[in-house]
Amino acid sequence: MRGYSNLKMAVAGLLIAVGAFFAFNAVFSPVEAATRSCSNDDVIKCGALSISELRSKYNSDYTHGTKTIYSYMGLSSNTINNAHYKMGTVYKDGRVVVDGKVVAKNAISSGRYSTRGATYHNIGGVKFYTGPTQVRFITLSSSPVFAFFDDYGRFIGAAMLGCGNAIKATNVVETPVYKCNSLTAAVIDRTTRKFTTAVTAKSGATVKNYTYDFGDGKKTTSTSSSVTHAYAPGTYTASVTVRFNVGYVEKTSTCMVKVTVEEAPNPAVKIEKLVNHQKTAEVMAGDDFEYNLKVTNTGDVALKDVRVSDEAPAGITFKSADTGSISNNVWTYTAASLAVGQSFTVTITAVANEPFADAKVNTACVDTPTVPGSPDDCDTATVTTKIKVCDTDTDTIVWISKSEADNEKYTTDLSQCENVEVCNQHTGKIITVSRNDEDKYVDVDSAVCHPKPTPKPPVTELPKTGLADTLGSVLGLGSLTAATYYYLASRRN
Fold first, then answer.
1. What's residue 483's pLDDT?
2. Which residues contact 341 (CB under 8 A, 6 or more apart)?
3. Can you tell me the distance from the alpha carbon of 288 to that of 124, in angstroms, rounded to the nearest whole number?
4. Residue 440 DSSP label
5. Bridge pairing between strands 288-297 and 325-327
6. CA torsion 97→103→104→107, rounded to 10°?
7. In a domain, 46, yes or no
């Protein structure tokens, strides 16, 4: 019986030894997440299959020295209780993989029992071993883990589910980069600006949205990097706050830009027209006169394509201009530009053709696409045409307008005011009078002013003595008497 008992004890001891061997190596068997190890190598006895179980066992130090081992492996209390975590896998080759991506490499595993190539530690009486997973994972190819990350998604460390053994590895997750680089305000029109935000978001950082503060009390949040906004005149400081998803947290970055909106422009143009440098003038038919034009930019913006035109009224002919051109009695000119406050002047030489013409409503206009409306401005100068007539009352040549032309004392026959010679039948003298008074006198050639000379009696030679002298004396007396008679007769006629 004793031998039997000894045999039983030997078998029992062997079974215990074999069980211990397999229990020791169970942590390294290819188990899935739901498999607990429950070996003496466990940092946390039988591991933890949920994060709440892990935290509970860690905080109660379910297995002595857990916090010490975790701290040495880079897993603080804050990490275990507050850090972001995901389910992952640690591989024998040292990789830690989460969501199909390698987040760490060169993994080192911890445990309470030694394996070949492991490093022994004794911290405050807590004894444990660490070594690369290539050494510690004897039969395992991989093991599920709780993988912990900082706010930026960078790997901190891990805990194996089945045994609670801590994993330390080199993070390979790039540090996220997030930044608002610039905010620009492109001019769409006088009041509208298009805001565009330039950002950098990489290595796990992504843009969540943009909050624009336009600086005039108005804001908007958009997922677009570009928005437009209309302002009232003034100067503003606009800003954009960019929200980034960075790892497990939201971060922000801000850019600003100054915006100035000018007052509404007031484009305006004025044209002034004069005739002989005055608004109303009298000109003589057939004589040249001038139209004077002045165009001025009276607004606050430069003008382009300033077109000026002037059509001659009936009875007026444009002869020439110092600027522009004349076609079909219409003068035109286009100035390519006209600065604020700038003017240009034009002189048009014209002639009045019609006698007794009415006053001429002659209007010049200016138009530019910069100023609303068409035409933009017009101005008028008035011409009254006069003609030369004879004033029969004064026998002088004068200039009169149409309103005076119906007066009977005027005649367009200027010869009526010319002076002529006539015979004053009352005095028998030739005098000079206006042609208008010519009919009051007789012709300048009239005999009244040109009497016939008195004929002289013939002279007869008589003897100075005797009968002959006496007879001669008698005959001479008779001739004198006869001549006197004929003269008196002619005067009566």
1. 47
2. 296, 297, 298
3. 123
4. G
5. unpaired
6. -20
7. yes
37, 145: one domain: yes
| Count of positions (residues) in the chain | 493
Residue 62 forms part of a structural domain: yes
Q: Of 170, 152, 332, which is closest to residue 245 (Cα–Cα)?
A: 152
Query: Per residue in 380-407, is it b (16+ CB within 10 Å) or e — as a string?
Result: ebbbbbbbebbbbeebeeeebebeeeee
- The residue out of 319, 352, 387 marking a domain boundary is 387
Rounded Cα distance between 154 and 145, Å, is 16
CB of 86 closer than 8 Å to CB of 98: yes
On whether residue 408 sits in a domain, the answer given is no
482: in domain: no
At residue 482, the pLDDT reads 46
Are residue 98 and residue 207 in the same domain, yes or no?
A: no
The structural domain count of the chain equals 3
Range of the domain at 247: 177-261
Residue 327 belongs to domain with CATH number? 2.60.40.1530
Q: What is the pLDDT of residues 24-75, one digit of tens each?
A: 333 333 334 458 989 999 999 999 999 999 999 999 988 889 999 999 999 9
Last residue in a domain, options 328, 362, 387: 387
- Judged against a pLDDT cut of 70, whether residue 23 lies above it is answered with no
Query: What is the reported pLDDT for 18?
Result: 37
> Do residue 256 and residue 293 come from a single domain?
no
Whether 49 and 85 map to the same domain: the answer is yes
Q: Are residues 29 and 131 in the same domain?
A: yes
Bridge partners of 171? 104
Question: 133-186: per-residue pLDDT in tens?
Answer: 999 998 889 999 999 999 999 999 999 999 999 999 999 999 999 999 999 999
What tens digit of pLDDT does each residue of 390-443 get?
Answer: 887 787 877 777 667 777 778 877 777 878 888 988 888 888 887 778 888 888
Cβ contacts of 421-429, under 8 Å, gap ≥ 24: 423/448, 423/449, 423/450, 424/449, 425/449
